[in-house]
Amino acid sequence: AQSVTQPDIHITVSEGASLELRCNYSYGATPYLFWYVQSPGQGLQLLLKYFSGDTLVQGIKGFEAEFKRSQSSFNLRKPSVHWSDAAEYFCAVLRNNNDMRFGAGTRLTVKP
Amino acid sequence: DTEVTQTPKHLVMGMTNKKSLKCEQHMGHRAMYWYKQKAKKPPELMFVYSYEKLSINESVPSRFSPECPNSSLLNLHLHALQPEDSALYLCASSQRPGTGDQPQHFGDGTRLSIL
After folding, report:
1. Quick check: bond before B8 cis, omega within 30?
2. Contact residues on chain B for A102, CB-CB shorter than 8 A
3. Is B12 in a helix, a strand, or coil?
């Protein structure tokens, strides 16, 4: 079955430091992969998506992610974290026919 | 601001009440979804509507009854809920059902509390 694993439940980084959030997927074919962010009390906002083509994808708010088929990974990165980036981050894979499955999420805390 | 609007934002109801959650989008999307999200957990898919027809029901109890009256509206009717049903209920939409390359756009959710 297709699934998504986010190994880190909680990450703390200092403001201005770089960030990498890990995501591993299990899928038999070319996956459709997404990163979403959720602030407290709000819905999910799409940061970026990967369908095919260039394996480095750019998203909103200065985020990027790299698809690595050999490692079954789709890690999210940001070169310099801002305090407003503190939130929950979900990696997701879209299975056939609109069935989206989410990883467990990684909570990001940003230290001043 | 989200393009998927959910009402109400908060709902408190007793176990014998009947209430409905509403979701609306005007992006011309033809797939709409209901998710349930417990605290500190990822969203879990409940229902998928494709072209106003129910296409996925993830074995959701019958006390949850979805309805898609037209391509812009999605309702979730609630009856005889249990305390464990307290959660954030998220609605989402995507452009074209049946294709894999469509991201889902989420509303801000309805926070439901069952007394």
Report:
1. yes
2. 42-43
3. strand
Chain A interface, Cβ < 8 Å to B: 32, 34, 36, 41-46, 49, 51, 90, 94, 96-105
Token pair 């602030």 in the structure block, residue: A39
Q: Which residues of B17-51 are buried (b: 16+ CB within 10 A; e: fewer)?
A: eebebbbbbeeebbbbbbbbbeeeebbbbbbbbbe
- Cα separation, A43 vs B73, in Å, equals 18
Residue B59's SS3 state is coil
Radius of gyration for the alpha carbons in chain B, expressed in angstroms and rounded: 13
Q: What's A100's DSSP letter?
A: E
Task: Tell me the residue ranges of DSSP E strands in B1-115.
Answer: 4-7, 10-13, 18-25, 31-37, 44-50, 53-57, 64-70, 73-79, 87-94, 105-106, 110-114
- pLDDT by residue (tens digit) across B8-60? 999 999 988 899 999 999 999 999 999 999 998 999 999 999 999 998 888 89
Q: DSSP state, B84?
A: G
List, for residues A1-19, the tens digit of each pLDDT value.
668 999 999 999 999 999 9
- Mutation target among B101, B111, B112 for the A interface, most CBs of A within 10 A: B101
CB within 8 Å of chain A, chain B residues 10-69: 31, 33, 40-43, 45, 48, 50, 55-56
Strand partners, B110: B89
